Amino acid sequence: MKRLKILINFFLIICCFFPSIATADDNGCVILLYHRFSDEEPKSTSTSPSIFNQHLEYLVDNKYKVLALNEVVKRLKLKSSFPEKCVSLTADDGFLSFYTEAYPLLKKYQLPMSVFISTEPIDKKYKVMMSWEQLRDMSPLVDIYNHSVSHLHMVDLNNLTIKNEINIAQQRLYKELNIIDKFFAYPYGEFDDNTYSLLEELEYVGFGQHSGVAGISSDLLNIPRFSMSGPYAKMDSFSLKIKTLHMPIESENPKSLIISGDFKPKLVLNFSRPLSAYEKNNFSCFISGQDQPKISWLSSQSLSVKSKEPLQIGRSRYNCTMPSSKKGRYFWYSKLWLRQ
Questions:
Q1: How far apart are CA 89 and CA 152, in angstroms?
Q2: Mean pLDDT, to the nearest integer, of 61-67?
Q3: pLDDT tens across 275-293, in order?
Q4: CA 236 – CA 219 distance, rounded (Å)
Q5: Overall CATH class of domain 24-245
Q6: Distance separating alpha carbons of residues 60 and 203, to the nearest angstrom
Q7: Helix-then-strand count for the chain, H and E
Q8: pTM value?
Q9: Residue 171 confidence (pLDDT)
């Protein structure tokens, strides 16, 4: 009995002084990505306002902590912990429907959100886009960040074009909204090695369009976000995604999105800890429109994933999941590929 008490006391001391031991692998924040808010716009990029209302209501009713994006980035840089139920809301492009449909709901629930805008459509006063006045009107509940000048595919561009797309947009954001945070969302989630390197050189934080949870080992030049448009916005998909956990991956190879050759890219994942036999046996990856890819374990902390068929032209993803010890919650990881 005395020995048991000693063990319990020792465990309590460990938990008090080293809480990250139990949470370092899965601690993170789910970042959600929206585009348009409409029942009539293209389904692939639209979320019904009524569905968005259900999303926000669910977050409030289930006591999720909705963090502003700059707070998420701050914690990622400091490698500090997140609340257990952590979500951050983002939207890309700056469509007018954000102001007319989404913003009133954000005010209703008093939840923060961030919008990445391309500045040229706003400067040209396109009717489907928000205006600078409307963007200012949403402060401080809604933060605005950089989505380039003209929403180009950031692939196969020369250095001057890339820098102009990023720097000129940032200058407009500063002039109109006094934005100084250097956050950049890649249009279409696409970039090549050159764009990636220039974003690092310009000292930006980058956001992609691949699913996964932002966590301690996330690449700060390509932070994942779960799409909430079209079929992905349905409540069963939404409730599953916001419960996902940060996959304990220390590194991936390659980082590049661009594929060539046989168009069956091999991805090597290195985990931050040895996986249990249960985790290894239940680790799965999927490719849309294909059978499951070939998974080869290189060690208890490393594996390779390779598609069995060539990936299609355009964007494809390896989506990987693994069950956790938390009931109904899964580790989630996604790798975006681009075949030109």
A1: 23
A2: 98
A3: 999 999 999 999 988 999 9
A4: 28
A5: alpha beta
A6: 35
A7: 12, 19
A8: 0.92
A9: 98
